[in-house]
Amino acid sequence: MSKPHILLARAVFPEIVDKLARHFHVAANQSDVVWTQAQLIEQLKGQHGAFTTGGDQIDAAVLAASPELRICANMAVGYNNFDLEAMTRAGVLGTNAPDVLTETTADFGFALLMATARRITESEHYLRAGRWTKWSYDLFAGADIHGATLGILGMGRIGQGIARRGAHGFGMKVVYHNRSQLASDVEADLNARYVSKQELLEVADHLVLVLPYSPSSHHAIGAAELASMKPTATLVNIARGGIVDDAALAQALRNKTIAAAGLDVFEGEPQLHPELLKASNVVLTPHIASASIPTRLAMANLAADNLIAFFTGQPLLTPLNPGVLTAGLTAQPSAPASRT
Ligand code: 8YV
Hints:
Blueprint: E1 5-8, H1 14-21, E2 25-27, H2 37-44, E3 49-52, H3 60-64, E4 71-74, H4 84-90, E5 93-95, H5 102-117, H6 120-128, E6 149-153, H7 157-170, E7 173-177, H8 184-189, E8 192-194, H9 197-203, E9 206-209, H10 223-228, E10 234-237, H11 246-255, E11 260-263, H12 274-278, E12 282-284, H13 293-311, H14 323-326
Parallel strand pairs: 1-2, 1-3, 3-4, 4-5, 6-7, 6-9, 7-8, 9-10, 10-11, 11-12
Helix pairs in contact: 5-7
Bound molecules: 2-keto-D-gluconic acid.
């Protein structure tokens, strides 16, 4: 009986490739070619499992062309690259990588907030350009973090991690908006108050976006929302491109509708709206909020362990649509079943 076939859609730590190769026939993409959808479909031919990242779209067309595919393990907590309904219909399991990245991502969200409010990259560019000739009273004077009101849109695990840093480390008041309200003891610990989205926009000195992307969160922050914010406010997006209308944000930064923004994610990334690149009051980073070596390794291990668990008949660690299993489409460890 042959081993299951697994596709690694992007390059990953060599030890993860080695670990998977102990269980599977592995088709690795260690040269890290970013495939088109047509190329992804081609590469998935005959594969029983896929190790994916946030840029790999598993949609109805991919599923229709990949009848042997049984599981896609995402090395990301966000899974808006999965059409989960189509996967469930097709009997394909999805897994994601929650928890292991929470603290690292919250660290980065706070770092981006600090860099943005205190104008760290803007002032460094000025210095490196040889423009610093004298000290002056308002040179790169920004906004305070300590004691300010921290707004959080999307109060999941990462949002709570940022709130904890703000409340415990910087004496911040926290206001948040979320699908559901936190338990009162959690709110008390985070010095957090649940408010409407409109109040959040109006009262936050710093607003951090940590909500998942879905059609309903598309352009959750657009021109009208930006106009509701304080002119001294900063906006930080570590969630997903598309949650902010980047064209409207670029205009708001140019017009000083808000003071500054820190962005780790972008609509259409890795392309950026050209007006964002021109704005000086924005800190831009290339989708690296979870990028510490230990955390990226933990994310990759979790994705790999989900694949191994599935094909060895063990319980999945972080399934997104476990109903697929109970529907009777279980894995066959040494002879992977076809869906067809
Ligand atoms: C990933 C992320 O680095 O986990 C997520 O949802 O956005 C990042 O941590 C990225 O999606 C690559 O898979």
